[in-house]
Amino acid sequence: MKQNTVIAFLTLAFLATGCQGGPAKRPALSARALNLPIVDAHTQIDGETDMNVVIATMDRAGIGRALLSARFGRKPDDILALAKAHPDRITATARTKTKNYLKGFKGTEFFRNSFTREIAAGEYGALAEVILWHDQKGNKAGKAVIAPDHPRVQVYVDAAVKNDWSFIFHIEFGGAGSDREPFMKKMKAVLRQHPDHPMALIHMGQIDDPAEARRLIEDHPNLHFITSHCNPLTHGRPEFPWANLFDGDRLHPTWSKLMIDHPDRFVLAFDNVFPDHWGDYYVDQANLWRRALTDLPEPVAHAIAHKNAERLWKLPPTQSTPPTG
Q1: pLDDT beyond 50 at 17
Q2: What is the tens place of the pLDDT at every residue in 168-200?
Q3: How many Å separate Cα 311 from the centre of its chain?
Q4: Residues with Cβ within 8 Å of residue 278, at least 6 apart in sequence
Q5: What would the DSSP string read from start to end of 15-74?
Q6: Cα 226 to Cα 42: distance, rounded to the nearest angstrom
Q7: Pairing outcome for strands 65-70 and 167-171
Q8: pLDDT digits (tens, 9 = 90+) for 273-317
Q9: pLDDT at 26 (0 to 100)
Q10: b or e along 42-67 (b: 16 or more beta carbons within 10 Å of the residue's beta carbon)?
């Protein structure tokens, strides 16, 4: 789906305001949008971000609950403590981005045993995304290529199935080049091996063709699409080929049609990573999605905003949390 001039304008306007600390002009939200409960089904915090900003920024963005995981430099105990202090707002997510997984230090069995001990020691309610194909992102996030049928991936699949956690693939099909087809084939094999276990592709898997997404949905009843990064505020950098589900500030008609046809297969998330994500960027994305979702039939909007996450991760009903801005 080609980026149009409206998307380019929105992206440039955002970069010129919120990303640089200037006042971002936010259109007024309808009462229906303001009161739409939202679950952020996958987000992260690193060691450079003040933990105190999490709940405060969720309040500003109107996020009722976040499934939160530790990134490099952040101790998992910090996540568990925040979830214990705010059980109605935070679900602790078992971390997956470790050197033992990404680099395979000391072998698969050492990794399996250390991960098993870690999750046994804490009260986790989810498993973070599992990195399979991840491109270099500037100087902050390196490239990783781990095939879906790798034994270390199977450790996470086994843990997800055993603990009844949805499994999240991180595969950037848009940038995978010659790895695209082999990774697609192997991902489908994992889906078929566990047909009754819910699985998801974060960032829509960088799949920007609604027809391809529809085929995957219809061929794999256990596959879901997580919408993080798939909006005009993150779209537009050719080196990061995120899918864009929007036309301007509204959902593109082909994507909204697919969501209406399959409302149980799309899950809202934002996937914060770095300190600057925990600020206006979060608020502006949440507001953009609030406006867009209220164009859909109300049951569809609620399914994508919170009910699918509640079902997939067995969460209690999410309370409406109007954004404070």
Answers
A1: no
A2: 999 999 999 999 999 999 999 999 999 999 999
A3: 16
A4: 45, 49, 53, 54, 57, 272
A5: HHTGGGTSPPP-PPPPHHHHT---EEEEEEE-TTS-TTHHHHHHHHHT-SEEEEEE-TTS
A6: 9
A7: unpaired
A8: 999 999 999 999 999 999 999 999 999 999 999 999 999 999 999
A9: 61
A10: bbbbbeebeeebbbebbbbbbbbbbb
Q: Residue 187: which residues within 8 A CB-CB, separation 6 or more?
A: 132, 148, 169, 171, 201
CA 246: distance to chain centroid?
17
Average pLDDT score, the chain: 91
What CA–CA distance (Å, rounded) separates 54 from 277? 11
Q: Which of 109-123, 139-153, 205-219, 249-263 has the lowest mean pLDDT?
A: 139-153
What type of residue is 244?
A: N
Backbone angles phi, psi at 251, to 5 degrees: -60, 140
Q: From CA 207, how far away is CA 223, in angstroms rounded?
A: 14
Q: How many residues does the chain have?
A: 325
Neighbours of 185 (CB within 10 A): 11
Cα gap 59→323, rounded to integer Å: 6
Distance CA 115, CA 69 (A): 14
Name the residue with higher pLDDT: 60 or 239: 60
**What average pLDDT score do residues 41-66 get?**
97
Provide the β-strand partners of residue 145.
133
Yes or no: say if 40 and 93 are a contact pair by the CB < 8 Å rule. Answer: no
Residue 124: both structure tokens together? 């986790």
Q: Tell me how far apart the alpha carbons of residues 178 and 157 are, in angstroms, rounded to a whole number.
A: 25
With b meaning 16 or more CB within 10 Å and e meaning fewer, what string describes 263-299?
bbbbbbbbbbbbeebbbbbbbbbbbbbbbbbbebeee
